[in-house]
Amino acid sequence: MKLQFDKNQVYQLQAIQSVIDLFDGQPLSNSDFEFSMADTNSGSITFTEAGVGNNLALTEEELLTNLNKVQKENELREDEISPAIEKLWYNEDVSVKNVLESKSIVTEFPNYSVEMETGSGKTYVYLRSIYELNKVYGFKKFVIVVPSVAIREGVIKSLQITFDHFQEIYENQPADYRVYDSGRLTDLGNFAKSNAIQILVINIDSFTKDVNVINQVRESGIKPIEYIQKSNPIVIIDEPQNMETDIRKRAIANLNPLFTLRYSATHKNLYNLVYKLDPVKAYDLGLVKQIEVDSVVARNDSSGAFISVDGFRMAKKSVTAKVSIFVNEKTGVQKKQVSAKVGDNLYKISKNWDIYKDGYVINEIDADNQFIEFSSGQIVYQGQPIGGLTDQILREMVDATVENHFKKEKELHGKGIKVLSIFFIDRVANYREYDDTRNTVQGKFAEWFEESYTKWQSMPAYRGLMSFKANEVHAGYFSQDKAGKYKDTKETRTTKDDDDTFNLIMRDKERLLDEKVPLRFIFSHSALREGWDNPNVFQICTLNETKSDIKKRQEIGRGLRLCVDQTGARNLDRAINRLTIIANEAYESFSKALQKEIEDDCGVKFEGRIKNARARTSVRLKDKWMEDALFLELWEKIRAKTKYKVDYSTKELIANCVAALQAMPPIERPVIYREKNVAKFIRDAKGKLIELGGEQKGSKEKMVKESNYDIPNFIAYIQSKTELTRDTITQIVLKSNRLGEIFNNPQLFMDSVVRIIKQEFDRIKINGIQYERIDGQVYKMKLFEAAEIEQYLENLMEVKKQAKTLYNYIAIDSLSSPERKFAEDCESRDDILFYVKLPRTFVVKTPIGPYNPDWALIKKEDGEDAKIYFVAETKDPKAAKDHTLLRDRERLKIACAEKHFKVIDDVNYRVVGSVSDLKV
């Protein structure tokens, strides 16, 4: 399998273009530099080599103007608009031990932040931005800084699988990528000297300390890091929230960046936010999987007092324990985490639940030794819960995961989409143990899994669905020690052992997606969550014997990416892309915790977007639907397939482009100015200096200075972007009488011409498009069978009058009120004889991508016997009347659909805001 990538994802292109626009006005250029190496034998001979680096010609004022323009175009909040270019700063600690005094160091390079939700293609975006920055501005040197082995391996894998894709887009632009290896320091010399795109991936811990090899003076007399510093690289920081310590910020500054680009879903500090795709927006746009929660909780479990010590909180004069117990809520007894101190009675904390009535007053809390002691003398240690149904619940969670997996396998059978499930566990021994002879034996989780798998495999509903044996379909990914024993991975450290673990996971991603490979269930350590995901993970189960501190967003992030089929192509069907979380807590509790995390992290509301796994139902065709006379009558009208040809005149294209260029705003010369600022020293009452401020005064002076630019081969540049002939481009530019403005600002001129040509080319192609029916080719009625699938109830309208349509439910967009109202009116109105929501695979081909109309209907006018056949697209009522309110691509696709249905006899195509708009 070779994973496929869509180069036209609008939100990804917007994120990339936002970064490009930050440097609008930057000339296309390279920066050459020289570096010297002394001959240590003679001590007098110096060798000089040439290198290629990056150079930024824009002033800080120009950078701020560009940044603010991008921020406003991306509709960021007012408080997210930067008043100045924010720099990186850190405290440089005095070397004397125990002295707290420090001085703040402010760097000179700009920092930019891009926020993208996990699973939306963040790595793809910044890798493609590298190529785009090179194409537009000539930048060649890039360093990707990562915080962990997991993320490093993920980046390398992305570089490998996207390389051919980017080479195709960027016409085989020479590019090299490598991982920093302290044993191959010559790579850094090649990085500095090469004239091709250079991408260096490096772990932050490789260059934070003076003792790191990269910071040590070598025999040549220079430090290896100098090769990077001289190149003035663009530094891309992956997951920058993990690099906010003074030591790590200083290390990044020591790379001598031209500027930094910081990419994350959960930034700790936003330095000049450029683009924002928060989880709510990603979810609403269908860019990630829907989330559902399958809760496994114990109810009416009064067989014993459950107590789990989950942690401790120490203050100056007291210590409290975080304890999970049963609490007697109004809705019933539920397991909850509470805070308790010495002297507290669990009977009262549990709201008088009888099992805690005698002997459960806390006598002692020992945070050092991690236990609490009760008045009965019983001691409970952290991580060793007592009572309750701990094992039973965990076993049921395993079974629930296997059940959901088999259901998903059946749902996707024949679609070429492999289903994966992942179990996160906190103790390896629960999956793999060792006997006295050091042989591996199954832990309880593995035993439970194989029993559950065998049970579901033998059930009539799933018999024959998966022929693999239970021991073939699951495996564990854990670090191994030198003796080959599996061991628990520490989240706070990365070792060579971790490399072994991550290599297996990252480098076998394509093989893991192959349906012929038996492995479908992965058991992995909880610490492996960060930096790993797979598009075909549909079930995630966390099997912790105690309450996990891992964030919900981190947990679900491993499975948010949209799934792919056996060809590597993404499947965009929202009904299929559903991630099920098997959770040991009530749905309401999980939902509330996730909402709070998102609100805390992103400042946005996420209410109502997490689905309850139990609130789903099946969309089914009615009995004998293929014999429904009205449906057959309607289907006979609309089922014809067409082909199109684009007929346009180059002369007309030239004329339209010339007219648009003539109406283009003037291309003005950049204003280069100098400005005086009056420094203002702010002191306290005693005269001590506390701040150095600044104010712009009337004495400031503006000065305009003309600049001369080297004019690039603008015809070749425009041709590479538009694919028009040189002659056509030349005519457009010359006839516009605007060529002289290229001397004012060459890059702005070329980009403006490209944008206008593309806009006019799209319009003229659509205007000149002609459709014709293909003899003997029609859509098959089997398209409607594919729409039989489980859906969330909130995305469905229950059908009351079954004779008027095909399904028991109508699938609608829960966030689209026009669509829901349209469906309701179709059912209630007597003049609508029959209606059906068209399947996603019923599409009209257009030059800018396939188009799927919403509805097909039969309408009868009052007092008339004749039937009228419609195909309808539902939009907001205002947009339905005024198509200029629609996005360009929507409007152009609708124009194509109008021409397609014109050649289909007796079918009227309409864009409507309501059923009342269906008129001939």
Write a brief structural summary.
With 920 residues, the protein is of the alpha/beta class. The chain is 29% helix and 25% strand.
What does this structure look like?
The chain contains 23 helices and 39 strands. The strands form twelve sheets. Strands 3, 4, 5, 6, 7, 8, 9 and 10 form an eight-stranded mixed sheet that branches. It has a seven-stranded parallel sheet with strand order 21-24-18-25-26-11-27, sandwiched between helices. The model is unreliable at 38-46, 94-102, 490-498, 671-684 and 687-705 (pLDDT under 50). Helix content is 29%, strand content 25%. It is of the alpha/beta class and 920 residues long.
Summarize this structure as a short list of keywords or feature phrases.
globular, Rossmann fold, eight-stranded mixed sheet, alpha/beta, 920 residues, 23 helices, 25% strand, seven-stranded parallel sheet
The percent of residues in helical segments reads: 25-40%
Radius of gyration: 32 Å
Superfamily (CATH H level) name of the largest domain: P-loop containing nucleotide triphosphate hydrolases
The tally of domains stands at: 5
What is the annotated CATH architecture of the largest domain?
3-Layer(aba) Sandwich
